Structures are given as C-alpha cells and as structure tokens.
Amino acid sequence: MGLFTVFSDNEKDKNRSHIKNLLEVAIADGKLDESELNLVIKIASNFDMTKEEVLEIKNNSNEISFNPPSSYSAKIKLLEDLVNVIIADKTIHESEVEICKEFALKLNISPIIIDDIIVSILNADDKY
Fold first, then answer.
1. Considering the entire predicted model, what is its pTM?
2. Which domain holds residue 66?
C-alpha cells in the first residue's frame, strides 16, 4: 500500500466519521427528520459522498469509529455542521444540544462553544 493510499484512506475514514457524527446528532431527539437527513446528504456531497453512502453509514454506524479532525479549524467546522443539523428541523431539542456538547468535549473544546455557535447561526439566519 502506497503512502498516497494511506492518506486517502485516512481522509475517507475522517469523512465517514464526520457524517456518522452528524447522523448521531440528527437522531438524538428520537427521529431522523427529512430536513436533517437532506442537510447531512448535502454536507456529505462536499466530501464526494452520495446519498446511498450516507444511508449506508446510517445503517452501519456501529462499524465506523470516531475519527476526530486533527486541525482546530476542522474541529470547529464539525461542530458548526452538528449545530446546523440540529437547527435544520426548526426545533432544537436539549438532547441534541447535549450530544453536540459531548462532541465538543471529545474534541478537547469547551462545550460552551455550542451555545455560541447556535446563537451565531440563528442570528445569521435572522439577517435573511
């Protein structure tokens, strides 16, 4: 296996983990809303992943391990994506916020940042 293959496999693992994390947050309230799933699919397309791949991750999530981003900016991007998913259905459940805060802790980031991201995204949405 060449060096490029190792790097591309690692990147693919991180992308699959990212999507798995988004799906976990999306179902934290007990249901996967269509607007949440559509947003996850849209985010996955940025990783050149198809809807079918997203559904495969959803159906086999136990096979995908948590693979955190290494850079701070990638960690913040993950947290922003998580918050966007919980906002997608226009209802923010406490269970969704709590799981986002757990992800922040896993990334060695203060969970208070989740509240800041929520406010920032909601305020940005109010401007349009």
1. 0.88
2. 3-126
